[in-house]
Every structure is written in C-alpha cells, then in structure tokens.
C-alpha cells in the first residue's frame, strides 16, 4: 500500500521471519484465530515491566501508598491505545513505524528521528543491563561490575533462539512473563494489602496533580511505562503472521492483534501495580517512606514481611524481567536500524553495538561509584526514554489518522481525538518531567 507515501515500500520488516506464521482461514473458530495471533502482545508488554519501571513504582508505593495506582492504570490505558495504532499501521501499510517515518519524512528529519530512537534503545538496554546486574548481585553476591559484563553474553543466547523460529522467542518471553507474574502473585499474598485502600487508589484523585512531589513521581511512572521502542517493535512483529492481503484479512488481523496486545498489557498492568502495591503494603504501611532503590527493597522485604522467600522471588522476578526485555530490545534495535536506514547488518554485529553502548557507561559507573551510581544511571535512562517518546507517538498518530495512507482503516474521529489528546498529555508531562529534572 504505497498511496500517500513519498516513497514506495522497499522491503519487508524483519524479512527473515516476515509472514512466517500461518493463520487459519475466516471459517476457523475464534479461539484458533486468537491462538494464531497470540504472542506479539506479550513481547510488547515486556517493555512495560522492565527494570526501569521498578524504581518509579517502588518510589510511588513507599511514599504515597496506593494513591498512584490510578496513574499506573491510566498509563496502561494510554499504552493499549498506542499499541493498537502501532499494530494497525504495520498490518495495513506493510511498514513498521521506522519504515513509515523513512517513507514519509525528508532524509534529514528521518535521520534525526533514527538517532533519537537509537539513543532511546541504548537507554532501554542500559536499564536492562543494570537491572540484570543488580539481580545477579542480590541473588548470588556477584559484584555489580561482573554482573554488567555477564549480561553482554546474552547476545549469544538471543542469536541461538532467533535461528530456531519466531514462535520459540515468543514462547520464551511468555514463560519468563509467567514466572514474573507468579513471583508477584506470591508477594501480594504475603504482603496482605489493604484491599479497600487499593480499590480507592485505582480512582484518579486531584491531589496527584496538586501535590508537586506526587506529580513528579506520577510523571516518572508514565514516562517509564509507555516505551517508545515498543511502538516500532509492535508495528513490525505483527507482520510475522501470514494474513490475506484483503480488507477482510486485514480487519481480522487488526482485531486479533488488538485483543492480543490488550490482554498482554493487562498482565503488565498487574505486574507494575503489584510492585507499587507491594511497596505500599510493606514499606509505606510500616513508615518506610523513602524506599526507592531496588537493592533496599530486596533487603527489607524479608525482615518486614517475615517471609524469607519474598526477597528471593523479588530478585528472581527482577532477573527474569531484565532478560525478557533483552530479547525484545534485540529485535527493536534491528527493526529501527533496518527501517530508518534500509540497511541490514548481521544480527550479532547489531546486537553487539547496542550492547556495548549500554555496557560501557554501566561498567564505568559500577566500578567507580558502585550501587548508588548504578541506581542514578537507571533513573537517567528513564529520562532519556521520556525525551524520545513524543518523537515516536506523534508520527504514529499522524500516519494512522491519514486517509491517504490508511484508506478505509483510517482512525475514526473518536479514536483520532483520543490519540491526539494522549499525545498532547504525554508531550506536556514529559516536558515538565525534563524541566523538573534539569532544575532539580
């Protein structure tokens, strides 16, 4: 579908796995169709529960109890809408978001967007490296510097499974997600939260906006939840399904891709909410209002809850989260480079470049500054992601709202209003977050 674009479509996104998964015909049952499309949503949802989210959720729960649960919920609702648009763009146009930017914008603007996106992916990779290193340190006593070095070896694991087929990667991600879910289900049970206060926290309250400290943490939660690279990732991996290139075939694909991502993002919501609830029930309830560091949370869980397994499972979930995010970060890096530059590198070269950009600063900080330095670097990575977010969201909404590009699949007026409103809120809140960070 080349109408409305400056340049014709040149190549398939992730060509080695493009349309590699068969989809049943229109007469198949609902559940058979759903199982065929199930998978990309969980891979996207992983980015919404990576180690970068943990610090903001811990800070929100320990300082303000259950109040900021509504922010986690609203952030996930924003994400559901944006991921629906990303899936629709990929299915309808046959372009991932990076390819769409290249085919729509001039060369200089496209290159600028590519550079910003590469910085964001490096920042996300940085969060995964630090999160995994912290988990290895907490669970096995491995020095942070050695943990950082060890995480670079996962490039070999990713490459091995990439060669086994896309369904294998989806299955690994699903398995790790179930592990994280199980760990936090246990944590919630043993922390015995105040269910009435928890339900009240899901309702947005004016004091979130009027209290400066609370607003700052709330914006941090939003910035850490909606990940820019996920929009590029989702617009690509939905194209691994071999759908009929007809209006009916595309409508079916959009329907099931949206169900897939929405259900998966509810899982991500549970995990993010569980971290905040755990912090509220365990730390805020006992007067520990300044627990924002992952290391502090790990050390305090067992003494406060009186459950030895609580700390261990917290560390296991953190390690699984970091490794899960690594898998999807690998693909996002490949999609962005190939999409913006129309350039293919060997996967191990692309992954090694991205990994080194993240590992070198993490290693230097771990050696020189230790635990406190890595924690600050983790927060800094989330600020960088916040800066990039608008540069991914605005093009996505622009493209999917264009009838020339989307034809009959163009966003309906109500979706268009919602999408632009979400874009404006994200832009305004992230601008405020960056200003506060600079001033602070």
TrEMBL record:
It is a multi-pass membrane protein. HAMAP family: NRAMP (MF_00221). It comes from Hymenobacter armeniacus. This is Divalent metal cation transporter MntH. The chain crosses the membrane at residues 30-48, 68-91, 111-134, 140-161, 168-189, 209-233, 254-280, 300-320, 352-370, 382-402, 414-435. Coiled coil: none annotated. H(+)-stimulated, divalent metal cation uptake system. Keywords: Cell membrane, Ion transport, Membrane, Symport, Transmembrane, Transmembrane helix, Transport. InterPro entries: NRAMP_fam. Pfam families: Nramp (PF01566). It is found in: Cell membrane; Membrane. Belongs to the NRAMP family. The keyword Transcription regulation does not apply. The gene is mntH. The keyword Membrane applies. PANTHER family: NATURAL RESISTANCE-ASSOCIATED MACROPHAGE PROTEIN 2, SOLUTE CARRIER PROTEIN FAMILY 11 MEMBER.
